[in-house]
Each structure stands twice: as C-alpha cells, then as structure tokens.
Specification:
Blueprint (H helix, E strand, L loop, with lengths): L3 E2 L4 E6 L6 E13 L5 E4 L9 E6 L8 E3 L5 E3 L6 E3 L4 E9 L4 E11 L4 E6 L6 E4 L20 E6 L7 E6 L12
Parallel strand pairs: 1-12, 4-13, 5-9
Antiparallel strand pairs: 2-9, 3-8, 3-10, 6-7, 10-11, 10-12, 13-14
C-alpha cells in the first residue's frame, strides 16, 4: 500500500451487524514507526461532505488516543467522555486523521466493542495489511488545517481537485513552486 502523507484522512464506515445495539467504548492503535520516507508525493486532496465523526491519532505519541476537535479548536480525548452506539444495520462514518511529524508508521485499529453480553475486539486494517503513513517532513500548521512543505519532495504529481489540468488527472508539478493542496490557516 502507498503511504498517506501528513494530513491525509482515512474514511471508515462502521455498521451495526449484531441483533442488538453495540457500543464502541474505545479505539486503540497498534503501530510500528521508523524513519520517514522521502521521494515522490501523489497529491490529491479530498473534496466532499464531512463525515459523521472526525478523529485524529498522533502516531508520535507512545500511546495515541482518539482525539476530536472541540469548538474552540483544542483536541480532546474522544472516548474519555463519549462512546459510539450502533443500532442493528445502522452506520456511522469515521474520518480518521493519523498524524506524524517524525516517522513512517504502519498501523491498525482495534475497536473495543460492548455488545451487551461481552466485550469483543474488532480489528480494522487495510484489507488485512496495516495502514501506512509518512511524515511530510516539515508539516506546517496544525490539525485539519495543516499543510505540506512541498519543496521537501523530489517529485510531485497533483491530481483530483488539485490537478493543474483541471480534469482530475495527475500532472507532474515543480516541488519548488507548487503551492496547491490543503488550505493554509
């Protein structure tokens, strides 16, 4: 799997598949981190409606917790004060922002689920493999409003809504002059 860079978001759809309401009481991250990758960036920022629940995990922390942005912009531990409940057949969409300023990380998520009679652990992976993320070397800004210092990369291909061709196709751009991508604060 290609690594996602600092500021990329994973969209995960949860669906209640039990015959009763289940409660997700926590999400843990299992991670292994090493030195960051460098080289080529494929830049294609998202464009769409916001998901139901926005969470971030700081993979530079020894024990990352699910954090959410409060109305004041501060990040707080999501599961310290709330849970996620799913009725049978109901769905919730999570937007998970895994961040690292210093590493390349491989990770999976472990959902702690209470189904009313027992606690079970559900693993979320990238089709059986870990998700991967690498730092953008020198991310600037914080949280959702962070952006990449593009000049750090050797090669950049911009696509989707960031495509200079205005047709979603990936086009090679100059890392020294490219300034599209995520919004700057």
């Amino acid at each position: 799997a290609l690594p996602i860079s600092y500021g990329a978001t994973l969209q995960i759809v949860l669906q209640g598949n039990a015959s009763q309401v289940v409660t997700i009481t926590n999400i843990q991250v299992l991670k292994e981190c090493t030195a960051p990758l460098a080289g080529t960036l494929l830049e294609s920022p998202g464009a769409g409606a916001p998901p139901d629940i926005q969470l971030s995990f700081n993979l530079d922390s020894p024990f990352p917790v699910a954090e959410y942005p409060t109305s004041s912009g501060k990040l707080e531990d999501f599961f310290a004060q709330r849970t996620i409940q799913l009725k049978p057949g109901a769905t919730d969409t999570l937007a998970i922002l895994p961040t690292t300023k210093y590493h390349y990380c491989e990770f999976t998520f472990k959902l702690m689920v209470d189904n009313g009679t027992q606690h079970v652990i559900e693993t979320i992976s990238n089709n059986g493999k870990p998700f991967v993320v690498t730092t953008a070397a020198e991310p600037e800004g914080i949280g959702v409003y962070s952006y990449v210092k593009y000049s750090w990369y050797k090669v950049i291909y911009a696509g989707g809504v960031a495509s200079p061709a205005l047709n979603d196709s990936f086009v090679r751009v100059d890392p020294k002059t490219y300034n599209e991508g995520l919004p700057k604060p």
